[in-house]
Specification:
By secondary structure, the chain is an alpha/beta fold. Helices cover 61% and strands 8% of the residues. It has 3 domains: 2-108, Rossmann fold; 122-231; 239-345, Arc Repressor Mutant, subunit A (Orthogonal Bundle).
């Protein structure tokens, strides 16, 4: 459903427009507000989320072209259609320059409004298809470890900002896409929620709005961080140790000593040690330690649990030993890791 603002002081034409069957309760397009001048329109747009503006070009005060320019300048609405009684190349040209989505000739017709709605839907469908392709290509990059998709991801982030031409909308859109990607990953790999939080991905602070390149670079790095994290947590392996890896990833708080895991999953201890190292390129004990430290990292960033409690929760009663292992993984102490993150956010 598209919430619509109509801007017109032409009583007869306005009455004709509002009486159309298009604007019933079941319609895709709903009239949210009707105002008679551009200043009133701007007040509405600054207070409400409006999907579509249909405005007369000839208005008292600021005209429709100037209203369009201000709407785009302040990024108040993505879709603005200009309306006039006579076709004018000059008006149409100005509308194109300032980003009008359509040029309507009054009196309005049902076909014309339907075409307008269809055009908007097609634009949104195209955007949704691009988003879906992005998610699919991202999954191919993650699961297939194929760098050919890397360029596509960078290109999408560039285009996302260009499409919205607005920091806040671009930011919200990338967060939405990232959540979709994370949801797909979490559905296939429920254990991921133990190591990676979408909330840590969110970009905060108005300073970024003034530095678009930093904005784009932040998200490129964040996407690749997710991809790298997945590949580090899930090393290359065959089906014969898939159960072992999934158990470790799903249970970082458990006793994950090699003999304990082997007994629980019915493996010979020596066989497990040999085949694990051969397939993953890591010693079993090193992999388990890494997983526990990754879990500790997320708990430090997303909870108020004490460092001592986190260490004990993961099986380390000796705080000094836990800190030593954490520092080996992250090149800093647990407290520095936690404080460094919040300093960065501020």
């Amino acid at each position: 459903m598209y919430s619509t603002l109509v801007v017109s002081d032409d009583e007869k034409k306005l009455e004709s427009l509002l009486s159309m069957d298009l604007f019933n309760k079941e319609s895709e397009i709903q009239i949210e507000s009707v105002v008679k001048d551009g200043e009133s329109a701007l007040k509405v747009l600054r207070k409400k989320e409006i999907d579509l503006v249909i405005t007369d070009i000839e208005l008292a005060g600021i005209n429709g072209i100037e209203l369009l320019r201000k709407i785009k300048e302040e990024k108040l609405c993505d879709f603005v259609a200009l309306a006039c009684e006579n076709a004018s190349f000059s008006y149409a040209r100005q509308g194109i320059i300032y980003g009008a989505c359509d040029y309507l000739i009054k009196p309005y017709s049902v076909e014309e409004i339907n075409d307008l709605v269809l055009r908007i839907k097609n634009i949104q469908i195209k955007k949704e298809n691009i988003e879906e392709n992005f998610v699919e290509n991202s999954l191919s990059y993650i699961y297939g470890r194929d760098n050919k998709y890397k360029g596509y991801i960078e290109e999408y982030i560039e285009k996302n900002y260009t499409f919205f031409r607005d920091f806040n909308k671009a930011n919200k859109n990338i967060i939405k896409i990232f959540r979709n990607l994370a949801d797909r990953l979490y559905a296939d790999n429920p254990w991921m929620e133990l190591y990676f939080s979408v909330e840590n991905f969110y970009l905060n602070g108005t300073i970024w709005e003034k530095d678009i390149e930093a904005f784009k670079e932040h998200y490129k790095i964040s996407f690749y961080k997710l991809f790298d994290e997945y590949q580090e947590l899930m090393p290359p392996h065959n089906d014969n140790i898939k159960e072992v890896i999934n158990y470790i990833l799903s249970s970082p708080q458990e006793d994950l000593r090699q003999k304990t895991v082997a007994r629980k999953l019915n493996f010979n201890v020596t066989f497990l040690s040999t085949i694990f190292a051969a397939q993953t390129g890591e010693r079993f004990v090193d992999y388990v330690t890494k997983i526990k430290m990754k879990r500790a990292g997320l708990l430090l960033l997303n909870t108020n649990l004490t460092i001592t409690y986190i260490g004990i929760e993961l099986g380390y009663r000796d705080l000094g030993y836990f800190t030593k292992l954490f520092k080996k993984e992250y090149d800093c102490t647990p407290s520095a890791y936690r404080m460094g993150y919040y300093d960065y956010q501020i």
